[in-house]
Amino acid sequence: MTVAPERKHRWYFGGLSSAMAACFTHPLDLLKVHLQTNEKKLSLRSQTMQVFKESGIFGFYNGISASLMRQLTYSTARLGIYEVGKEYVNSDSFSSKILLAFMGGACAGFIGVPSDVVNVRMQNDMKLPKDQRRNYKNVFDGFIRIHREEGFKSLFAGSSLATLRSIIVTVASMPVYDHMKLLLKKHTTMREGLVLHCICSIVTAVSVTTMTQPIDVLKTRAMSAKPGEYKGVMNLIKQALATGPTTFFKGYVPSFSRIAPQTIIMFMFYEQLRINFGWIPPPPASKVDKV
C-alpha cells in the first residue's frame, strides 16, 4: 500500500493564517498596547472597563485594518521565507531552522513596520485627550497622513526595535514549533492532528512571550511616541528603566493572553491550510542500478 506524501506549506499560508487569528485576538492586542503605554498601574480588568466605557464594544477593534495589513505583510514575509528556505536545508537540523528564522524575521520586521506603526497608534488613540488624537480612518489613511504630516521617515518609527522583535519572534516560534513536533512524533505515539498541533503551539507561545516582552514594551513606546520624545534607543531604554526593571515585563499576562490564542489559532489554521491545500512534493527520482 502506497502512503501518500505529506503536503507542504505554501509560502503565503503564514500571512493568511495570521490574519485569520488576528480577527479573534485583536482585542487582547489592543489591551496589551494600552497597558504598555499607560504610566498608571492599571489591571487588565480596569483597562478593559475603561476601553468599553470610552468606545463601547467596537472600541476593542480599533486599528483592525492595520492589524490585518501587518499580518498580510509581516507574517507572509517571515513565514514564507522560512518555509521556502526549509526546502534547501536539512529539515532535521535545529540550527539550520534558527538561521532561516533569523533571516525571515529580519526581512519581515522591516517590511511590517509601517502597518505596525499605524496599528499601535490607532489602538492607542482612544486613551489620549481628544485634542491629541490622530483619528486615522483606516490603515491607508494612516499611511498617507503620517507621510504628509510627519514625513516618510516616521512610517518607520521604531524600525530597529520592530526588526529585532521580529527576529526574536520568528526564532522563538517556528524552529521551536517544528522541532517540538518532530520530537513528539519521534519519541511518542502522537501523530499529526489537533492535539499535537495544540501542544506544540502552547510551548511556542511561552517561548515567544518570554523572549519578546522586553522588546515589545520598548517598540510599543517608540511607535506611540510623539516626534522627538525619545532621542534614540538608548534614551528610550533609560527612560523605561527609570520606572524600574519590571517595566520591561509590563503587560506580560495580557501579552501571553494574546500570544497564546494568536499562536494556537494561527498554527491551527496554518496546519489545516497545509493539510487541505498544501502542495505535494514530487516523488524522488528512481535510482538506476549501475551495471
Number of domains: 1
- Binned strand content: under 5%
For this structure, the CATH topology is Mitochondrial carrier fold
The total count of strands amounts to: 0
CATH class term: Mainly Alpha
- Please mark out the parts with pLDDT under 50 across 5 or more consecutive residues, or reply none: 287-291
How many angstroms separate the termini?
29 Å
Q: What structural category arises from helix and sheet content?
A: mainly alpha
Can you tell me the overall shape? globular
- Secondary-structure element order, N to C: HHHHHHHHHH
Mean pLDDT across every amino acid position: 85
**Helix segment count?**
10
The radius of gyration over CA amounts to 21 Å
Query: Mind telling me which CATH architecture this is?
Result: Alpha/alpha barrel
Most strands sheet: none
Helical amount: 55-70%
| CATH level-four homologous superfamily name | Mitochondrial carrier domain
